[in-house]
Structure formats: structure tokens, C-alpha cells
Amino acid sequence: MSNSLSTNTKTTNMGNKSTEEMTPEKNKRMCNACMNKISSFIIWSLETVFFKVGLFIGTYPLLTIITCSLMCGLCGIGMKTFHESQEQEKLWVPQSSRLINEKIWVDKIFPQDTRFVSFLTVQPEGNILTPEFLNALMDYYLQSFKFSFRNQSFSDLCLRVNSKCYVSSLLEIWNYDADVIRNLTETDIKLKLWSTPVSPVTGTNVQTLLGGKIKMDSNGNVVFAEATEIMWIMEKQEDTSTALDFEKAMIDMALKGIRGINKTYVYATRSFDDEGYGVINQDIKLLAMGFIIVFAFVLLSLGKFDLLRQKVYVSLVGMYCIGLAILVSYGLSTALDVIYNPILSMLPFLLLGVGVDDMFVIMETWKNLSPEEQKLDIPHKLGVTLSHAGVSVTVTSVTDIIAFGIGASTAIPALSSFCIYASIGILALFLLVATVFASSLALDERRLQSGRDACLCCYKHKQPYTFNKCSSDKSFLQIVFANYYGPFLLKLPVKVLVIIFTLAMAGLGIWRAIHLRQDFDLTNYLPSDSYAYAYDHIKKEYFDRQGMETRVYCGGLNYFRMQDVLQNMLERISNSSYIQTGSVNSWFTAFQMYLPLSDVTSEEVFNAQLFQFMHSLYGQRFAPFVQFNSSSLPVSVKASYFTMTHSLQIDSQHDVIAMDKLREIIDTAGLPQFHGAHLPKYMCFAYSREYMTCETNKVLLSELYRNLGLSAACVFAVTVILIANLWTSLLVFVCVLFTMVDVCGILEVWGIKIDTASSILLTLSVGLAVDYSAHIGHTFMTIGSNRNNRALMSLKAIGPAVFNGGLSTFLAFVLLANSASFGFQMFFKVFSAVVIFGLYHGLVFLPVILSLVGSSPYLQAKDVPTDRTMDCDEEATNTILVNDHAAVTKNNIELIHADFSNSRM
């Protein structure tokens, strides 16, 4: 078979080359010849493989479908270990971050296994420092103890401080004494606030509990505030059902409201799961509707409007392929222990949108076969179809897989896992479309040739079948592209306008893109109509003076020897502009005031006095802050912590700076370091759950730039290899860059910021953006004529498939436009922009550019140069040089079929 496709053997003398003068022109000719030979060999190899695959599938379509289905089913077995992870540190924090070991240490030494319910009580333009308001707040407090589930109340669930349930609120300063609170006057309230700046129960600065407009008298005493917070803290139980029921009851009570308080906003531990992840899971029902919409579109696009040539089962098999790809993606990824996170709920929509593109390319090629090819038997006809469409489908699929694969190497686990799932899904789609979907074409062609009904296959129509007026052989889109759109687009004035408009749009996109801002905040993923979203925004509005709450943890220090270092460190922290004034709550400072440390003469005395202090009336509130190695004397300090609040920062990037500045103060304090694996580096370190978000924001932008850059480079390299022409690949790549610039620009206009979800989508967009241009670029290279005609014929041949693919991708997720999920809305916006700009650059800009400066088509056998100066090297022998159709001419088909038949024997 190879000999039938080869060019003539070389006849010149091998020794002539060494004596022949190599001029620059000849060097250029040799280089071009090498590129042409490589290009032709790649194209021929792919076409030959796809032809043989199509020949086998066309011969055994049912066997192919059954075998592929069984293999996908086996892959799906991996889902038996399916588990969804929602832990923030496993999803969003780079695993190389120092925070990972710090969290492990904190969870071990000071387990923060607590749950909470927080109420924000607001009196807009009204004063909360009144007897009526505090009585209403007391009603909330008392009612919380009345809820009982499974014979357990809040008293059984609560975290205790000084033997009392920990409830943080203004009522602390009256020690929750109902009799006292019920008889307060406004004067009593103000006097108590003036005389008690720090809560005797928890040591909290009382002013941090006040929000909204705060007014003070001439002496600096608070006389007016609009809002306050009350928070119930519970210990986390192994069985969380009772706590969940209590939180639900508290949420219902807050939403119902209570007399004396204008408005109450609530947030609990369960709120994000209910309102954030919950709405994502609810919107999965849109996937079924998306499948129905895409199926209807595919059915209308692929078939004709008659009972014989409709493609009902072909369309169903197309949807079946997408379902199998989803199963393979989830099954293999789960088997490989790749974490599943809620953002992966978007993956089925992605595969639904992407999968249909390849089907349209294959179907468009099937319909555009030459009259001679249409007369072939079914196996050969399918082989020819795949040999024509296979290269184009491979270009787009491989670039998608490469782009997603690059994203899998990112440091953010949630982004990495999404890209792994997506890569496996796209690969499965590529294989399934080339096998199962192609098999359905063979079966459908058998049905069509036998005259059986498109829906009721057992019913055979009378022959010859009479087609109705609506069932035309002509493709509406082909007519539009060939007779109207293409000729209009390729007029010189229109070309000039297209180039000017494209460059202007790219410039505008760059200008807006550089204004994109980074901000990752999980609360953005709360539905805008949820109570949790309202709580978050009210807290930002009324408690806008407070930043992140944090703690400084210290291990087993010699606190006696390090007291000067500790005191200096605490002073530097208190004086830092990144720490809210008066927010540092330190047991060490309180102990100094209780007992002058100058009177302590040894570590044993220091520890004994500290132990007594923690059991005194004044020091009891600091008892949770220090852990001793024993419950009785003699003791030593095992670990301790101090609490504080960062000053409010203007955005997430400044939150990262605030975190790093606090870490810098502690790291440079002169304290010793831990020794051992899986331990924090320093004996003292700052830690907060909100630092997880900071750690994500710290690397998010650099990871995005890295992923986009690597994805773009790999996509270009793959495009060069598979399109096998440097200049055409470069033009396709320019279209991809312009598309990405325009997408980033429109996202900034829409107010979308760079976070994990948008980073995922932008990384994926590189692979998707190449689809629309690569099909046009590859088809352009397969047509022999002048540039203008080749551009026009490319639009006619593949333009309808590209347009239908883009439209089907849009229809796959159009229902997400009204989703209550922020993530799904962002998915819709990003992918809509990719489809719109991708189609524009693929169907408008690229044909114009190709018509002006496009490369020469792939070499045909008759065009192969025989001059000895065209050789690549002295050892070069016969090189197969064929055009896009050479491998499927009639004679070659017979040879390939013969080889195929012999191999089976």
C-alpha cells in the first residue's frame, strides 16, 4: 500500500550533494521541502489510521457500540468510591503552603471543632443601646435554650467558658443576668458600657460588638450604635444531626424576627452547604433540560424533514456518547483518587457543549462527500469520512486535552482536579465520537438504504419514497455560506473593515483586560436571594471597621526565658497598622498585670503562678488560651494562643499583605523553631481559617498567568504538528489570542473578578477557543486553488459545522443564565463570550486573513519536486507526499481494504 502512495524514487547521484554549492535560496527550498514532507507524512498517517478505523467500524458497527459501552461501564465502576470533598484546605489551598502544617498542628493541639449560629441585629437609623432592644436581644438568648432535639438542648451542645455556655454578645457585660437586664435604663446601659470596655466573660473589646453608625460623647464614650452581633458557639459532635436541627431552628427564628428588633440577619455553620453548594446541586436538574435542548437542535441540524432521512437514533447516540464520556471521566478520576468538589458540577455542561462540535464536523463531512465517494459501500464511505474529518477533530480534541492537562499541574487542588476530570472527559468524548457515533452513522445508512422508517425501524416505506417540499437535499447553511455570506465577506472593502474592527476590538479588550482585579471570596458563591448572602452584605456594611479575626499560636516555649521576646512581639503586633487598635487579647499581658513578672525567679515559679492565675476569678476567661501538660501542679505550658483582629483592608490582595506582615513580625521576633516533619516552621505563628482564602489569593494570579501561558504554548505546538503548517498554525493561534483578549476584556466590563472559578474557566477557554479557528485553518490547507477561492470553499465545506458546533455549545448551558448559583452564572458568561468571540474570529477574521496571506495547500503527489536539492538529508529515502484526499482515491481504497482483509485473516 505504501508503494502506491509514494513518489518516484530518487535517481540522482548521492554524491552530487556534497559538491554542489548550497546557496541561501537552495537552503530555503530544502527547508520548505522538509516541512512539506513532514506535513504530508503527518496528514497521510492520520488519514490512513482514521480510514482503517472507519473501515472496521463500518463493517462491525454493533460490535463497536457494544464493546465501547462495556469498556465505559467498566470505567464507571470506579465511582463506587465516589466521595465529594468540601474541606477548604483540600480544595483551595496550595498543598505546599505553610498553612497546611500550621492547620494540622492547630487542629491537633487546639481543636477548633466548633459550630456556630450568628445573628446580626440591626436598627437602621435607630439606637440599639436602649432597654427595649436589649430586652429583645435577651428574648433571643433565652429562646435559644428552649429548643430541644433528641432530648438535647443548646446547654448540651454549647462550648463552655467558665462553666457557662459561650454566647458572644453585648449581654456578656451583664453576665446574662435576666433580672438585671430586664430592669435596665438607658443611663444604666451607658454607664455600664463606659465602665466595662472589655467583656468579663470572654475578654472581648465591647466596641467590636457594635456596628453601623457609632456616636460618642465628648469624653469618647459610646452613646449610639445601629447594630450588634450575637453568636452561639457549639462543640462539634461526632453526630451532627442535633446541631444541624438546632441551627435550622435558630435560622427560622431569625428569619421570622422578634418584636423590638427591626431586622435580624443570620448565618450558621450549615448555611454555606445549604445555600452555596445546595443551589449548585439543585441546578444540576438544568443538565437534563440542556440535554433535551441540544438533542432537539442536533436532531434538526443533522436530519431532513421527512420520515426516511431524519436522524433520530444518530442524535440519540450522540447524546449517549456524551453520557458515556461523563461516566468515564467521573469513574476513572475517582478510581485515580482525584478529589471531587462542587465546582465539578459544571463539567457535564462543558462536555455536553464540547461533544457536539465533533459530531457536526463528522456529519458535515459525511454530507459533503463527492458523488464518487457517495457511491461507495458503507464501510468505505465511513472510512473516507473519518479520514477527511479525523485530522480536524484530532486537532481540536488534542488541543483541548493539552490545555486542560496544563491546568492539572496547578498548585490549587480544586482547579487541578477539575482539569484532570475535563482532560479524561474530552479524551473519552474524542474516542467515543470517532467510534460509537460513527457506528451509528453506519447503522443509519443501512436503514436508509433499506428504506426503513427513521423512527419505526421495523416499518419499511414503499419505494421509491416521495420526499416532501420541506425535505430538501440542499443545506440551508451551506447555501448561505457559499452564495451569500462567503462572497460578501471576501470583498475587498469588507476585508478592510473586518481587519480594522478586529484590531480595534483586540485593543479595547487589552485595555479592559489589564483592569481585571483578583478577588477570591467564597461568599460570592452564595445565591443573591439567600439569607446567607444578605447576612454577608449586611456584615460588610455595618461592621466595616473589622478585618479578619486571627490568632497567634505558640508551641511549648520556655515562656519564662522568652517573656521579653513575647512582650516585644506583642507590642509590635499591637502597633501594626494591619491590626485593629485594641483588638489584641493576650493572656500574657493580663498575667503581667495580675503578677509583675519581675517577682518571678524561675520557670517553675512562672508556670505555677500562671496555673493559679488561670484558675482565679480574673484569669478564668483566659483558661481556653493556655494548655498545660497536667491538671495539677507542677505543670508546664504545652501551648497557648493570643487573639486579635486585622484592620479592614480594601481588597483581598491587601488581606494577603496584612497576613504576610503579621507573619513577618512573628517570624522575626527571635523565637525558636520547631524541629520535625509536618510541623510549623516557627514556635509561634499566625493562623486563621480566613488565611486559607488569603493563601489561595496569594498564588491565584500567578497560577492563572502560568496556566494561560503554558496552555497557549502547548496549543500552538500541537496545532503546528497536526495542521502541519507553521504559517497557518500561527494565524490560528493569533485568532485564539484575540479571542482570549476579548473574553478577558468583556469579563472586566461585566464586573467579574479573578477567582478560582474564573481561573478554571479561562484556562479551559484556551482549548475551546482554538476549535472554531482550527477547523477553518485545516480545511483551507486541503483545498487547491487561489487563496480567495480556498477561503470561500473552506467556509462552504466546514463553516456550517463550526457554526452549528458553536451554537450547540451555547445552547448546552443557555439555561444557566438564570441560575441562582454564582458559579453557574460565571460559567454561562465566560463560555458565551468564548463562543461569540471564537465564532467571530473563526468564521469572520480568519477567512479574511487566509484569503490575503494564507499558506499554499498541502502538496499533491503530482506536485512533489524531484530535484536532488529538495532532499532533507543524505539518508533521505522515499517520502510519502499526498494531499488531503490522496489516501482515499478509488485505487488506494482497494489496496487498503485488501490489507485490512488480509490482516483479519
TrEMBL record:
<feature type="transmembrane region" description="Helical">
    <location>
        <begin position="382"/>
        <end position="408"/>
    </location>
</feature>
<keyword id="KW-1133">Transmembrane helix</keyword>
<feature type="domain" description="SSD">
    <location>
        <begin position="724"/>
        <end position="852"/>
    </location>
</feature>
<feature type="domain" description="SSD">
    <location>
        <begin position="283"/>
        <end position="443"/>
    </location>
</feature>
<keyword id="KW-0812">Transmembrane</keyword>
<dbReference type="InterPro" id="IPR000731">
    <property type="entry name" value="SSD"/>
</dbReference>
<feature type="transmembrane region" description="Helical">
    <location>
        <begin position="312"/>
        <end position="332"/>
    </location>
</feature>
<dbReference type="InterPro" id="IPR051697">
    <property type="entry name" value="Patched_domain-protein"/>
</dbReference>
<feature type="compositionally biased region" description="Low complexity">
    <location>
        <begin position="1"/>
        <end position="13"/>
    </location>
</feature>
<feature type="transmembrane region" description="Helical">
    <location>
        <begin position="801"/>
        <end position="824"/>
    </location>
</feature>
<feature type="transmembrane region" description="Helical">
    <location>
        <begin position="420"/>
        <end position="443"/>
    </location>
</feature>
<feature type="transmembrane region" description="Helical">
    <location>
        <begin position="758"/>
        <end position="780"/>
    </location>
</feature>
<dbReference type="GO" id="GO:0016020">
    <property type="term" value="C:membrane"/>
</dbReference>
<dbReference type="Pfam" id="PF12349">
    <property type="entry name" value="Sterol-sensing"/>
</dbReference>
<feature type="transmembrane region" description="Helical">
    <location>
        <begin position="496"/>
        <end position="514"/>
    </location>
</feature>
<feature type="transmembrane region" description="Helical">
    <location>
        <begin position="730"/>
        <end position="752"/>
    </location>
</feature>
<feature type="transmembrane region" description="Helical">
    <location>
        <begin position="338"/>
        <end position="361"/>
    </location>
</feature>
<keyword id="KW-0472">Membrane</keyword>
<feature type="transmembrane region" description="Helical">
    <location>
        <begin position="830"/>
        <end position="853"/>
    </location>
</feature>
<feature type="region of interest" description="Disordered">
    <location>
        <begin position="1"/>
        <end position="23"/>
    </location>
</feature>
<feature type="transmembrane region" description="Helical">
    <location>
        <begin position="704"/>
        <end position="723"/>
    </location>
</feature>
<comment type="similarity">
    <text>Belongs to the patched family.</text>
</comment>
<dbReference type="InterPro" id="IPR053958">
    <property type="entry name" value="HMGCR/SNAP/NPC1-like_SSD"/>
</dbReference>
<protein>
    <submittedName>
        <fullName>Protein patched homolog 3-like isoform X2</fullName>
    </submittedName>
</protein>
<feature type="transmembrane region" description="Helical">
    <location>
        <begin position="286"/>
        <end position="305"/>
    </location>
</feature>
